[in-house]
Amino acid sequence: MKNGSFGLHVPSRAIAYCEELYQLHKFDFFLSRPRRTRLGDFTVRPGFIPRITVNVNLNPYNFLITYLHEVAHCVVHYKYKGRSRRQIAPHGAEWKHEFRVLLLPVMNESIFPEDVLVPLLRYSQNPAASTGGDQILFNALRKYDDQHADTGRIALFQLNEGSSFVFQNRTFTRGTLRRTRVLCTDKASQRLYTIPAHALVEAC
């Protein structure tokens, strides 16, 4: 990724910080087409430099939070290299600590509007695997999503249990929330699936 590219995607006062992290930590960074089940991801393969992707359609505040979320994974990867996944959980104490450290320099009103900053400060005390797991923060961020206006879609976790919805052209019944995913039943096959809680769905 070339320097300056962050300027199109994050708040202006966070550009230099994002570029600094990109230079400091060794990873490839790519913009991804919009994905319904994830906002970003961190992947690493033996013999390859770690890779971070963030959905290109995120609003600046959500993009910044997602980017720092994935950079925290990269920091943990290098810092605890050699330990097994059993010792270092993907969103365990080590990741939570590194994510909080990365968030600290940007958690101020010069970067985030107050209606996002307040729930973000609370969320940062014990960050979850996805901002979609924090309904107040999710709703605050979504208000800045132009692409969601008048689409009729809502986040899965906002539906009541037992509600019907359409996701990826299939009709489901919403079940119980399991941390960051929701157990759902495919109405046609009656098979059970877990769908990310923040996934946008169409209520029936």
Write the layout of secondary structure elements.
Blueprint: H1 15-24, E1 28-32, E2 40-43, E3 51-55, H2 60-79, H3 93-103, H4 114-124, H5 135-142, E4 153-155, E5 164-167, E6 170-178, E7 181-186, E8 192-196, E9 200-203
Parallel strand pairs: 1-3
Antiparallel strand pairs: 2-3, 4-9, 5-6, 5-9, 6-7, 7-8
Helix pairs in contact: 2-3, 4-5
How would you describe what is shown here?
The protein has 204 residues and is α+β, with helices and mostly antiparallel strands. It folds into two domains: 5-148; 153-203, SH3 type barrels, CATH 2.30.30. It is built from five helices and nine strands, in the order H-E-E-E-H-H-H-H-E-E-E-E-E-E. The protein has helices at 15-24, 60-79, 93-103, 114-124, 135-142; strands at 28-32, 40-43, 51-55, 153-155, 164-167, 170-178, 181-186, 192-196, 200-203. The strands form two sheets. The protein has a six-stranded antiparallel β-sheet, with no helix packed on it. It is globular.
